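ARCHIVE CARD
CATEGORY: sequence design from structure
SOURCE FIELD: tokenized fold
FIELD CONTENT:
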């Protein structure tokens, strides 16, 4: 069975709320794909539809060419963690996993294996009621891994974890992807995904904003600027503008030059006999880029690609590596409607 998650023209409406609005992308095996978007962007809804927990209003999600509900042994095909706290509090960690294993024809020995894998073996017999958030998350991961599945869907797995727990999950996800599994993980934290994901799917208000390798996303969005402190800002500004450098004056009186390098600014200043007190390069943070990309999602819905001055920079880069990144719904959109089974 294939390991690709294939989302085509997926939509979900709850009354007047459009939670997911025509999403199309694929999630490939062998890498961690980060599913990024601000709170309420539609990540959980998309994952719920992938797992057959919610019916699409339109479009479809297939996992390895099948609807989740058509999978014969779902836990062996797809591991998931949506709401980690969704565990009976009176059960022990071991009891919870054993119950899951039994109902999915998974040997009891595997329960011990996954408890060890997530570092819960010492508290295996403790009631889940007393677990910290971190322990609950680990239990959720153990449940996801129980069937040794080739595909994993994890909804905000690092939420509320301490730095050690965050590192642990990050390494685990990377290891699982290195084994050839499909790892699809949602987050609202750009900085975390930059460290974890090989590929990013960014959504806002239910719509696709970017489907790109993390490296491309960082390159496209970490635009640097050169900051110049000079007692002659007007002359400096003119010298830069004359050389074709875009420049603006910041609130503190310093100049910011874009699309150039500190050395060139220094050379231009020197050639014009200008006094400069400071020249430095600054890189916009990824978090800033993410906010810029997703912050005005409402505009993206109606205005199409941004052609302005770059402040509403829209990343539509597709992955050129393997040709799998299709940011927009292609000719296939609308070809099939999700069937309501059952
Ligand atoms: N069962 C539901 N009934 C009504 N509205 C819903 C339901 N589930 C989600 N929504 C709405 O759909 C939108 C998308 O929510 P969703 O939970 O998918 O976003 P998200 O990106 O996962 O954000 P978060 O990280 O905050 O959960 C939100 O406006 C939310 O209020």
């Amino acid at each position: 069975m294939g390991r690709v998650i294939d989302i085509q023209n997926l939509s979900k409406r709850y009354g007047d709320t459009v939670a997911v609005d025509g999403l199309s992308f694929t999630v490939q095996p062998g890498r961690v794909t980060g599913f990024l978007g601000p709170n309420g962007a539609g990540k959980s809804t998309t994952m719920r539809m992938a797992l057959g927990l919610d019916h699409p209003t339109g479009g479809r999600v297939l996992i390895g060419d099948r609807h989740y509900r058509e999978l014969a042994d779902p836990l062996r095909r797809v591991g998931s963690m949506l709401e980690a706290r969704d565990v009976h509090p009176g059960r022990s960690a071991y009891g919870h996993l054993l119950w899951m294993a039994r109902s999915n024809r998974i040997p009891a020995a595997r329960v011990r294996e996954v408890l060890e894998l997530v570092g819960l073996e010492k508290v295996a017999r403790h009631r889940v009621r007393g677990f910290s958030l971190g322990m609950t998350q680990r239990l959720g991961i153990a449940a996801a891994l129980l069937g040794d599945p080739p595909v994993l869907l994890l909804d905000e797995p690092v939420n509320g974890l301490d730095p050690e727990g965050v590192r642990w999950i990050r390494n685990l996800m990377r290891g699982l992807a290195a084994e050839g599994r499909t790892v699809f993980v949602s987050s609202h934290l750009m900085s975390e995904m930059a460290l974890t994901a090989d590929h990013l799917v960014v959504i806002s208000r239910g719509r696709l904003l970017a489907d790109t390798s993390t490296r491309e996303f960082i390159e496209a969005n970490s635009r640097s600027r050169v900051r110049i402190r000079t007692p002659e800002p007007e002359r400096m500004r003119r010298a830069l503008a004359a050389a074709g450098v875009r420049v603006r004056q910041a609130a503190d009186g310093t100049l910011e030059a874009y699309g150039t390098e500190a050395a060139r600014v220094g050379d231009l200043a020197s050639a014009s006999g200008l006094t400069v007190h400071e020249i430095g390069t600054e890189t916009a943070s990824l978090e800033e880029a993410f906010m810029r990309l997703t912050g005005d999602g409402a505009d993206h819905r109606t205005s199409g690609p941004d052609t302005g001055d770059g402040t509403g920079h829209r990343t539509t880069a597709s992955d050129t590596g393997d040709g799998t990144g299709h940011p927009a719904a292609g000719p296939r959109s609308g070809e099939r409607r999700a069937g309501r089974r059952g």
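CARD ANNOTATION: Residues 14, 17, 19, 37, 39-45, 188 surround adenosine-5'-triphosphate (CB under 6 Å). DSSP finds twelve helices and 13 strands in the chain.
SHELF: design records, drawer C
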